[in-house]
Amino acid sequence: MRNYRNHLHILFKRSVTRISFAVLFVVLGLSSTALADVVSEWNATATTVIVTNEKRAAGAAIVDAAYMHAAMYDAINGINPRFSQFAVVPSHVVAGSSEAAAGAAAAYTVLVHLFPNQKPFLDEKYAQSLAQIPDDQSKTDGIALGTEVAEKFIKLRAGDGWNAPVSITPGNGPGAWQPTSGTPVTPWMAYMRPFALETSSQFRASGPPTLDSDQWSNDYNETKSFGSLNGSARTPEQTVIGLFYTEHTGAQYARIFRDFAAQQGLSLSDNARLFAMLYVAGADSLIAGWDSKYYFAFWRPITAIRAGDTDGNPNTVGNPNWTPLAGTPGHPEYPAAHGCVTAAFAETLRSFFDTKKVTISLTSTVTGTTRTFNSTDDLIKEIIDARVFGGMHYRSSVVHGTVLGKKVAHFVTSRYFQPLN
User: Fold this and answer.
1) Which of 29, 102, 315, 407 could make an SS bond with 75 (beta carbons 3.0 to 4.6 A apart)?
2) Rg of the chain, C-alpha, whole Å
3) Taking the domain 187-415, which CATH number applies?
4) Taking the model in full, what pTM does it have?
């Protein structure tokens, strides 16, 4: 059985860009349900808690999930270490401890700590999760180890700035960000201690173009033309792309990752590593992105285009009635958050599989469509176009965001989660 699983893993990894996983699963008589594990199970539970019940903002939701997946990884990997521990090494490991029980206990402990009001719901999910594991000493030892790892991880993260109260004073005038949707969204993320980066400003973006530059007028006019709700230059396909990624990012990518993971045939420990890498890199890309956002505090298209005649650039003509295709998020424009996090996810997949040729299908509840990519570069390229077509960003902002996201992911994946041999 062990040789069969190893053979299956190699087969999937080598053929990720050449074979339809759906067809292969039919041939082998397997299903995504059969391959479901505690990592994906708790990812779904966390999404319900964070997005549905707590109604956390998109960026915060990915940061929240990173706490859980980092702890799950250290608990599961700590039993039979194949890779370096991320933050916590268990004090004592009993041979044969249940990895599934350790993962469930770590996930439960972290989520209850972050969201104590969700304890009744989490108690129920925890009981259901543990009921799938045989009642024996292995389960008991796994629970003890997972709980210990989570508690130590929580202690390490104490005072890291998560959800801390932060007061923001928006600017005014040309170039300055002015909130368009009430209270600024999650400003605490700009000052939070990252999970893996040395500081939140380690990869601070280079900055938006100056308002008197050709780059600024080019960015301005492209978004004005292609990102408008009415009278846009977009094709129907470009409109779909512009709306596709407007689903809640935390919920959308969580679902995509679970579907993707189910197709890979990975072991539980490999799945724990994949999700931890994705969420730690994703969270740190957003923390770094928020640092840049509030450092530069650059204005959104909805503000700039309506006041285009005030920026001193003769090539930017204002339109006081301009409205973007998609809603404008409540945080500064530069750099684009989706550029940061999508590039971080894409670069992490490239690192995990050691190739850019990774086939992944993305779905959207907004458009009801599926978009399939055969390369991580293609995914990054589309997110750049998507945020321009949506009218909430300028091209330079998304490009700079993807650069930041790739730098963060490279830093994370080259220094953490490394093979021990």
Assistant:
1) 102
2) 22
3) 1.10.606.10
4) 0.91
